[in-house]
Amino acid sequence: MGRRMARAVAAMTLFVLVMGVLVVATESGDACGFDWPYCGGKLYPDPSNVKQVIEYTHRLVTGLLGLVVVANAAVAFHPAVRRRGGTGLALGLVALLFLQAGVGGLNVLLGTPKGFTTLDVMISEALWAAVMIYLARREADETALSQKPAAGDRTALKALRRWAAVLTAAVYGTLVLGGFFKHSALAEVFFGLEPERVWLRDPGLARSVYVLHGTLGLSATIAAAALGVATAHLTIPLRRRFWLPVAAASTLLVLEVGIGFVVVVAGLKPFWVAAHMILATLSLGATAFLYGSVDAALRPASVSGERTAERGRRPEGLGRAEFAGEGRG
Question: Which stretch is the leader sequence (predicted)?
Answer without folding.
Answer: none
